[in-house]
Amino acid sequence: MRFYFVDRITELNPGKNIFGFKNVSMSEPYFSTHFPSFPVLPGVIIIESMAQLAGLLIELSPEGGNNKKKAILSIVDRVKFKKIVRPGDKLEMKAELTVLDDEGARADVFSSVSNELVAQTKLTFALLEVPKQFQDLIEKERQALLLALTSK
């Protein structure tokens, strides 16, 4: 099973930045235990949401290797959480590429709710070679995801 924590991409500038959001719903399974009487979106889900958005930006950037490489999160650095996120919130995210070469990439990522900063961090990704027999499959999956996240 796959879990996607990005509901929509609102702007994509390959090689530069990406904007998107996640709608936070009470029906998400982690709210039954985090915390039942005062549900709060776990910080790890916020980080994963930002990492998925940044990873897609890297893979869609010309230097990212396209279907021959996969962006794999390797370092989460200097995470700062400023506010909590609750059901009903719209978690808006932005990732800006700061480094992108053959070996890897780094992005500054930010998330906010109602224009108030929720979290920020620096994410580093390794760019791993996709075996030849999986390259077409990975590219089809990536394009289908991109279509789903950008269609209105």
Explain what this protein looks like in three dimensions.
The protein is α+β, with helices and mostly antiparallel strands and 152 residues long. It has a single domain (8-147), classed as Thiol Ester Dehydrase, Chain A, CATH 3.10.129.10. The protein has two helices and six strands, in the order E-E-H-E-E-E-E-H. The longest helix has 19 residues, at 132-150. The chain starts with 7 loop residues before the first strand and ends with a helix. The mean pLDDT is 94.
Give me the Rg, rounded.
Answer: 15 Å
**CATH class designation:** Alpha Beta
CATH architecture: Roll
- The CATH superfamily bears the name Hotdog Thioesterase
The residue ranges in which pLDDT falls below 50 over 5 or more consecutive positions are none
Concise overview:
This protein has helices at 43-60, 132-150; strands at residues 8-13, 17-23, 69-81, 90-100, 104-113, 116-129. It is an alpha+beta fold and 152 residues long.
Keywords:
6 strands; 152 residues; 40% strand; six-stranded antiparallel beta sheet; Thiol Ester Dehydrase, Chain A; alpha+beta
Secondary-structure map:
Elements: E1 8-13, E2 17-23, H1 43-60, E3 69-81, E4 90-100, E5 104-113, E6 116-129, H2 132-150
Antiparallel strand pairs: 1-2, 2-4, 3-6, 4-5, 5-6
